[in-house]
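In response to reviewer comment 3 from the previous cycle, which asked for concrete evidence that the modeling workflow produces usable outputs, we include below a single protein chain processed end to end. The sequence was submitted unchanged, and the resulting structure tokens are shown without manual editing.
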Amino acid sequence: MSLIDEKTDTRGQSNVECSAQGVANVVTGFFGGMGGCAMVGQSMINMDSGGRGRWAGIMAGLTLFGFILFAGSLIEKIPLAALVGVMFRVVIGTFAWSSLRIIRKIPRSDAFVLILVSATIVMFDLAVAVIAGIVVSALVFSWKKSQGISAKAFLDKTGGKHYELSGPLYFASIHSFSSIFNVANDPEEVFIDFNDARILDHSGIEAVNSLTDKYLQAGKKLHLYHLSHDCRRLLKNAEKIVEVNLDEDPVYEVADDKLDS
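The workflow returned the following structure tokens.
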């Protein structure tokens, strides 16, 4: 559907298509058939032949149904070479040739995913290629986001040190998070502002717990404030491992000090 939308400059309804395919696969199972999904090749041939409306897909399905029931002996006479030629025609029409012109201009990670997916389709099939592309893209995204956590540090009038975090805290960014703090040289009171940061997963909770242990062992007190509602709920669910008093929130007093200055 995404490919057809791109070719025809239209916008399909994914929920309708998924529902229709789901119903069709369930009904097919009652007749001993094998479930499947939309056929990219058949859709491209249909579109290149001028089919644009709903009847185009319906007629393609009815025609294929008729071939199976009544024209099986005739289909067997079609040379495989002819079918190979049809598939090559589909490949030529499906491949985004414009991507070759911009491959040197896009980020290397995107170019790698493009080449990986194309090679995987040739060696395996479209389903494996899609899964591989999603996995690699997710890993690349996680790596890029892991570099996005940072903090601004300053001392207030009482000598407490404040860290204003920015960015997501999750499994890929815990190393960068831990390197921000200087437990040995920090004062007795340390405040971490999560106004522009979010704790996203269990690894982020573990990172906060580990940091808390370090400050407790050093005889210092750690405060968290400006936590979002979802972060508070996440930490509340893990209160057995997070040893931070969330009730002590000095943000309002500190904010007044900033305004007065």
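Confidence is low (pLDDT under 50) at residues 240-245, 247-261. We consider this sufficient to address the reviewer's concern, and the full set will be provided in the supplementary archive.
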